[in-house]
Each structure stands twice: as C-alpha cells, then as structure tokens.
C-alpha cells in the first residue's frame, strides 16, 4: 500500500496542557475507523469478518467469529438458541490494527429478528461495508439496513462478494444498486473474469492488477493499455477487462466528499471465501472511511478531538461470561481520552460511574484497556446502573441523541404459574428490558406486564433467559394488540381524556413514558383523528422528551 492512509492533524503544537491533550486525542482519533458490516444473511459477512481479522493480525482469534457449526463455544444456556438456529444473537466488537490504523468492527446480528439491536449498533459506527452476494444482488435485509445507514448519513463501501462463483452481469449489479438504493455507484475496482474464470481485479483508481494467484501483490500498470497486462492474464480476459474498464468510465468518478455525505458508494469486488479482495477493501476503509465524526448532542455538537471524554452506551449485554455474572455496557467514545480508573458522569442521573476496568474486545476475548480514544468501543462492567442510550462525560451535562427504540409489533403478556416468583419476574423483566432484550410495559389498569418485541425469536430468547438465569419458568399469553405507539403531547387535559377513553389499552414503558396499544391500524388512525392534540410515535429516541404516564 503506497497511499498515505492517515491524515495527521496539522498546525503548531502547543505546550499548554489542554492543547497537548487535544493534539493527542486528535492524533489517535484520526487513525480510528469504527465500522459495521451490513448484509443479507448468507452474503458472506461472517467469512469476510474472519478474513478481515486475519489481515489485521488477530489470527489466533479468527475462526471464533463463525457462529455456525460445532466450532461454536457454549457461553451460557440461552446461547443454545444461537447454536440451534445457527444465528448470532449477541453483538460483539472486534478491534484490529493494520498499518497504523485501528479498526473497530462492530458486529451486527444478521437475522432480521434482531433488527433493533442492529439499528442501535449502527448509531455507534462512522461507516459501513455493504456486502452483496454477486449472484443475488440487493436482498431484502440489505435494503433495510441500508435505509438505516441512509437515515444517519453513514457512508457505505460496497463489497461485491462471491466473485469466484457464477454472478449476475456486473453492469446489471451496479445498476441494481444504483436504482434500488438510489445511491450513485463508483466502481474503484473492476473484476477480471467471472465465476470459474475470475482471476482478480483491476484497480481503477491507482492502475494495478490484483491477482488471486497466491503470493503475488498488486502489479502496477500504466493503465489498461499497458502491454504488461497481456503477459499477466489470458488474451480473452485482457480483452474483456479493457472493454469492461472502458465502459466503467460511464460511471461517475469516485468523489470522497459525496461518499462522506452518503450519496455515493465506492465498489470493490472479491471473494471472502478465497481470501481475495480483502486487503484492497481494508485499504479503502483506511483511506476513505471517516475517522470519528462530529456527534450531535442536545446542547451542542461534539468534535472527536476535544480533550474531554464523552461517549454513549449503545448496547448492554448480561452474562457474557458465565463465570462472571456481569452486565457489560458497550460505550462508544465520541471525544477525549478514556483512562482506566476514571469516574464518569452519567447525564441521566448526574451520578458518578467508576470505570475501573474498561474492557477491549477481541472477537470473544476481552482485555482490560489502560486507555481508549474516540472511535473505540469499551465495555464497562456494572450492576445495572447503565442503560442503553446513556451518555457518559467527564464533567459536562450533555446528552447524545439518536439511540432509538422502535415500536414493537409483537405484544405478549408474561404469565407465571407460581405467584411466589412474581417479584423475581418483575426484577428479571426490568433487567432484561434495560439490556434491550425486550421492551417492557406496565399496563395502567394493573394487569400483568406486557412485553414487546420486533421479531418473534426474541420471545424465545426471553423465555430461555428467564428460566436459565433467573429460575422463572413463564409462558406467554396473546394480547388483542398488534401495534403500540408512544404518546406525546404538551396538552395535559387531552392526555387525560385519552387515558380515560381507553383505560385498558394504555401503559407506561420502562422509563415511565406513556404508550398506547391498538388492535389495528384502523384503530390507531381513529385515535389520531379523535385526539389531534396528541402525537403517536413509532420511534423513540432514548432521551427525547416523552409524556410521563403517571
Ligand atoms: P453470513 O455471515 O452473511 O450469513 O454468511 P457466511 O459468511 O456464513 O457465508 C454464507 C455461505 O457462503 C457459507 O457457505 C460461506 O462459505 C459461503 N461464502 C462466503 N463467501 C464466499 C465467497 O466469496 N465465495 C463462495 N463461493 N462462497 C462464499 P455455507 O456452505 O452456507 O456455510 P459453511 O458450511 O461453509 O459454513
């Protein structure tokens, strides 16, 4: 790689303490890339992750990533669901370093049942790699995840995978991305051959041939006309590449500014299984993906290079290690330097949270970090003080916005046979709700708690965990509702009228905000017509102002 991958902060160094701290933060932030891989199941996300980790020097850990087959290690009882169904329930963070760049790969569960977790993870990245199966093109889940990235202006690098197999026509694929996603494509590589005759790619930005043949690095060329090309690949492939490369000129040139805005994607080609194209993709990530970006908070915008620490919790996971029954909050650092032993301010409560042993994650391993920087994700063990969406800072009382909750579509009552475990059930449900496993609602008429999930599989996870971790066997009872909305309004009298109108269909969520349940779209529309003073919200940002139920 002969491209400079890091933009070092420029300007005179200052000897003032703050200036020096800011420079160190800016320097460390500039070499970090926090990203996720988005893909439809089976497109090759797991294989690509393994190969990225291999490239990044985390060799001993690659192979543990795979969530399928018998290589999977049992971590706790409820993980059996993962094993049985061959899907990854838990989101993990993997850190690796290459050529001075620190990559933080935030793994998003691929199964659509867990989309809420995925959405939250996407709030913590600065870029995403979209993996597309060359034979299938854009699939349902790819599109869904892409839409979330678009909502958050997350720049996307496209990796067209499985080029070693029969694929769709390349132009057809590129046009499909452009049309279905309304995103301009800029191929930065061009495949040489396809299917069984796929031998490598041609770098359109810095003319060079990357060949699959083992051991050979890229061969620099002066351009497609370079006669060296004919000595490197068969004549028909050289001809095809020259034709294709020329036609590729019809696509717009790659424009880094448009990529950062999220309106253009650079396209790479390769085969994760054959470990081809991965180095080129990583080089692209290092070169084009943004270092930690500015983040909007309620009071102001936070810049990564600021010396004081800020960050937010986007995920909570309990019992990651059966030997330590702990809960780990995943903190995305947005600015400043985190040092072991710091005490951080939790904006929601004003309380001090000690960070005595921040954890770094390497696949399924963890290690205590001495320090961490913007773009990093650290785990903070705690006993339930930290919640999803919490902002932590050194001093300042600010709140990052944007960790969403989505209105669940499946609503069930949790029932127990043994009334003696009622209190245990409440505690368990509260803890699991804090972790984001389910959403929890307490009906205002005093009937048993209602849980809400986005996908049915979450219900299995909940039942399994209630039994395995809390010793509470439970069952679900259907409810008449298929919809739930948060109810917001400044008009207290209208809220009161609404509550009285449907006393058995209102509840409070985990944070005490008012919600309403509906049995159909028609009923919800009706409520909106009858109560024009109220807003019925499908998405709740963690800290947006909500109407209290009580
Ligand atoms: P996912 O995480 O996105 O669900 O996909 P995963 O990596 O598990 O890949 C899905 C299947 O596609 C796997 O085969 C994998 O080996 C295969 N695959 C991934 N990348 C490539 C590629 O570049 N070329 C080819 N030809 N195949 C690829 P499987 O048979 O379903 O699983 P397994 O038995 O290999 O684990």
Automatic annotation (TrEMBL):
One of its GO terms (molecular function) is translation release factor activity, codon nonspecific. Residues 30-293 form the Tr-type G domain. InterPro entries: EF-G-like_DII, EFG_III/V, G_TR_CS, P-loop_NTPase, PrfC, RF3_C, RF3_dom_3_sf, RF3_GTP-bd. It comes from the Bacteria. It is found in: Cytoplasm. One of its GO terms (biological process) is regulation of translational termination. Keywords: Cytoplasm, GTP-binding, Nucleotide-binding, Protein biosynthesis. CDD domains: RF3 (cd04169). The keyword Repressor does not apply. Coiled coil: none annotated. Residues 1-22 are annotated as: Disordered. GTP binds at residues 107-111, 161-164. Increases the formation of ribosomal termination complexes and stimulates activities of RF-1 and RF-2. It binds guanine nucleotides and has strong preference for UGA stop codons. It may interact directly with the ribosome. The stimulation of RF-1 and RF-2 is significantly reduced by GTP and GDP, but not by GMP. Belongs to the TRAFAC class translation factor GTPase superfamily. Classic translation factor GTPase family. PrfC subfamily. PANTHER family: PEPTIDE CHAIN RELEASE FACTOR RF3. This is Peptide chain release factor 3. It comes from Roseomonas mucosa.
